[in-house]
């Protein structure tokens, strides 16, 4: 009978009987807890990344703002060109005003010479011409009447320069007042000194109102010669007054009306005839 081989006896650890205690001492945290702790460490390091992203966003926003401001700011060349244009417009407007005065003076001289020539030989014809000149607006007139003033709303232009067209007096508003005054018995009318004739046009050009191609601005003063009391009562009873009240309530456009004992309206100058021919 063979003898089985001898095996080397296993050496036992001194603390083998305390395996559980040893495991707890060597590995105080469960693997799941260790993994959770590692994730928490990662999250605590993320704010640094967020801060970097925030700084980059602020830098990009600053650069974009600077770029927009630089693009919107006019260059010195543009500013200089605009100043030149403004000076040219001012000079030409002054020249046009002077030409208008010269035309008025020439028309007055022609009218005086015409009256002198006709006074002795054709007094009846002279009276007809004078009456027709008043009716057509060619001759200057004076007398009592009614004054209607229209003014843009106080907030028609914002602080940034934006214009609200609805809160500004428009050509249709002036046409409404003028037509109502004619219907109320006005004998002669002017707007800011511009005499209305049979061929006068009241139109808008952008934010400006043109009367016979002359630009006017608020406030718009409409002078009407006629019987003051009759004009006042008939104009107040017209539909134009109701529409003006709506403009004030809805858009802030103000209207004032008052009678005047004396008004002086300049003549509109001689009319240019295109189709009319003199009577035989």
From TrEMBL:
InterPro entries named among the record's database cross-references: DUF881 (IPR010273)
GO CC annotation terms, alphabetical: plasma membrane
Transmembrane segments annotated in the record for this chain: 50-71
Record flagged with keyword Transmembrane helix: yes
Stretches of the chain forming a coiled coil according to its record: none
Keywords in alphabetical order: Membrane, Transmembrane, Transmembrane helix
UniProt record similarity statement: Belongs to the UPF0749 family.
Protein name, entry field: Uncharacterized protein YlxW (UPF0749 family)
Species in which this protein is naturally found: Luteimicrobium subarcticum
Lineage: Bacteria, Bacillati, Actinomycetota, Actinomycetes, Micrococcales
């Amino acid at each position: 009978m063979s003898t089985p081989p001898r095996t080397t006896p296993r050496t036992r650890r001194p603390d083998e009987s305390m395996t559980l205690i040893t495991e707890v001492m060597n590995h105080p945290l469960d693997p799941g807890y260790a993994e959770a702790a590692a994730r928490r460490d990662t999250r605590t390091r993320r704010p640094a990344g967020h801060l970097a992203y925030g700084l980059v966003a602020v830098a990009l926003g600053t650069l974009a703002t600077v770029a927009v401001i630089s693009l919107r700011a006019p260059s010195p060349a543009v500013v200089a060109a605009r100043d030149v244009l403004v000076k040219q417009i001012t000079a030409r407007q002054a020249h046009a005003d002077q030409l208008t005065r010269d035309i008025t003076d020439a028309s007055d001289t022609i009218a005086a010479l015409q009256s002198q020539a006709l006074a002795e030989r054709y007094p009846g014809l002279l009276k007809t011409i004078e009456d027709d000149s008043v009716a057509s607006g060619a001759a200057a007139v004076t007398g009592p009447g009614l004054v209607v003033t229209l003014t843009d709303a106080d907030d028609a232009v914002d602080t940034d320069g934006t214009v609200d067209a609805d809160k500004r007096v428009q050509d249709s508003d002036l046409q409404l007042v003028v037509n109502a005054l004619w219907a109320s018995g006005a004998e002669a009318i002017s707007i800011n000194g511009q005499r209305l004739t049979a061929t006068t046009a009241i139109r808008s050009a952008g934010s400006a109102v043109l009367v016979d191609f002359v630009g006017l601005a608020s406030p718009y003063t409409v002078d009407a010669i006629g019987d003051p009391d009759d004009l006042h009562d008939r104009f107040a009873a017209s539909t134009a007054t109701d529409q003006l009240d709506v403009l004030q309530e809805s858009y802030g456009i103000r209207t004032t009306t008052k009678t005047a004992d004396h008004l002086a309206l300049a003549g509109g100058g001689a009319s240019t005839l295109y189709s009319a021919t003199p009577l035989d």
